[in-house]
Specification:
Blueprint lengths: L1 E7 L3 E9 H15 L15 H8 L5 H20 L10 E7 L3 E9 L5 E2 L6 E4 L6 H14 L2 E4 L10 E10 L2 E14 L9 H5 L7 E7 L13 E15 L5 H8 L4 H33 L2 E2 L4 H21 L4 H8 L3 H6 L2 H21 L5 H14 L4 H6 L3 H22 L2 E4 L19 H12 L1
Helix pairs in contact: 1-3, 4-7, 7-11, 8-11, 12-14
């Protein structure tokens, strides 16, 4: 077997495999020995008919497909091994038959390879840095949520429904007089003013009296998840069964100690601020690193092979699938609920996948150019730090460590060094935070299903 390799477009190489007459003949013999038990020929026990007899009965090309597969498997592996120092192969080949004759067989494989990454510059740029700080209103919001979680529900009588009430309702929705999936429930608790239903629904329940029945007219948003309901006007027959209000506990040191374990309100506020600031610092770091990578990406040329994009899409879809599994759902059920095909669902991740892969390639290229490494001393220090956090000696902690943990620690040290170097070699500036604009989020008219909650949770985590 002889092979030649030629660089092709879009980060692929073309490998041409040429086999002579004897190699082709040997492959057909192997194909015969492998598959002869499949063929029944009169006068012979199954699997005992000679090769030429089977070819006469079933046609000369009866073993061609298996023979070609055998040729390719043997020849391709040898070619890949020889070219592995020159190329890093990142996906499966696309194979075609260029020539098929008794004297010679020529096969071609188009194989994706690790792309060339050309970064014109990654130093001396002006890049935005992010620094989020915890505000007093965020701490107050946490305390209000704590009070709300510990609130007593008390029956409301003698007045109509108002915002903040928990309205127990029956509802049945129709579009053009026809019921639709997910548009009906009995005994559903809806907190008025929470925005759980689309604008217009909760507002029309406000003012209803207990026992009152009412038609609530709303219009589904244009971006609603169900295709058959987008932008459609709907009518919900609503019955208000009962009302409950919330009686919040008094914010005292005694309440805080019982609810959280903190000794005083001020101690809880300090602890809450510290926790929120840790989260804010993580957001700041992530946002700054993304900002740096986006700036470098604008100065980067790279042809990403589709195989790398597809693999990243697989990873993103799998992560989302795991989130659904944690909530007792299957991806197929989720897609059926949204009335979306798996192919269209995957397309939604393509833009993110391309961005992720490009960032990974940029990171790898700069690490290579700058020769950034994690020393054994740095790894040992990190292990000791982790051991101390769980109150163990370094040696005790090491005994239960998986080799992959060491790889993760090394990678984390290298990445930390990388971004420290990039921040030091670029002009970083912090833009003053602007007050967030108040917006009214569009919500579905029906109650949120588990699938919808899973989608929102995953979006928040992303």
């Amino acid at each position: 077997m002889k092979h030649t390799t030629k660089v092709a477009e879009k980060s692929t190489v073309k490998i041409t495999l040429k086999f002579d007459a004897q190699e082709w003949k040997d492959a057909l013999t192997k194909a015969y020995l492998k598959t002869r038990n499949k063929f029944a020929v009169n006068g012979f026990r199954k699997g005992k008919a000679p090769k030429n007899v089977i070819e006469n009965v079933y046609g000369k090309g009866v073993f061609f497909e298996d023979g070609l597969n055998i040729l390719f498997a043997e020849g391709y592996d040898k070619a890949i091994e020889k070219e592995s120092k020159k190329y890093t192969f990142v996906g499966e080949p696309e194979v075609s038959v260029d020539k098929l004759e008794d004297e010679e067989v020529v096969l071609t494989a188009i194989v994706p390879v690790y792309p060339e990454v050309k970064i014109s510059t990654y130093k001396g740029m002006k890049i935005q840095e992010y620094a989020y700080t915890v505000k007093d209103e965020e701490i107050d919001a946490e305390i209000n949520r704590l009070l709300d979680r510990n609130a007593r529900k008390v029956p409301v009588e003698g007045r109509t429904a108002q915002n903040g009430d928990i309205a127990n309702i029956d509802f049945c929705g129709t579009v053009d007089g026809v019921k639709f999936d997910g548009g009906e429930a009995q005994g559903f608790d809806l907190t008025l003013g929470s925005g759980q239903f689309i604008p217009g629904f909760e507002e029309q329940v406000v003012g209803m009296a207990i026992g009152e029945k009412k038609d609530v007219n709303v219009t589904f948003p244009e971006n609603y998840q169900a295709e058959n309901l987008k932008g459609k006007p709907a009518v919900f027959a609503v019955t208000l069964n009962s009302l409950q209000g919330k009686e919040l506990p008094e914010l005292t040191d005694e309440f805080i100690k019982d609810a959280t374990g903190s000794e005083t309100v001020e101690a809880y506020k300090a602890k809450t601020k510290e926790r929120l600031q840790q989260s804010a610092d993580k957001r700041s770091t992530d946002a700054t690193e993304n900002s740096i990578l986006e700036a470098i990406a604008q100065n980067t040329e790279v042809e990403i092979p589709q195989a790398m994009i597809d693999r990243e899409i697989d990873s993103l879809v799998q992560k989302f699938e795991y989130q659904l599994m944690y909530q007792g759902l299957k991806l197929q059920d989720y897609l059926e609920f949204l009335k979306v095909s798996k192919e269209d669902f995957r397309k939604n991740y393509e833009e993110s996948a391309i961005k992720n892969v490009k960032s990974q390639l940029i990171i790898s290229q700069i690490i290579k150019e700058e020769k950034i490494e994690a020393t054994e001393e740095e790894v040992e220090a990190k292990v000791a730090e982790q051991a101390k956090s769980v109150e163990k000696t370094t040696e005790e902690y090491k005994k239960n460590m998986d080799p992959r943990q060491f790889d993760y620690i090394r990678s984390d040290i290298v990445i930390t060094k990388l971004f420290a170097m990039l921040k030091a070699n670029n002009e970083m500036f912090v833009e003053e935070e602007k007050p967030a604009k108040k917006t009214t989020a569009k919500k579905p008219a029906t109650k949120k299903t588990t699938a919808k909650k899973a989608e929102e949770k995953t979006e928040e985590q992303a």
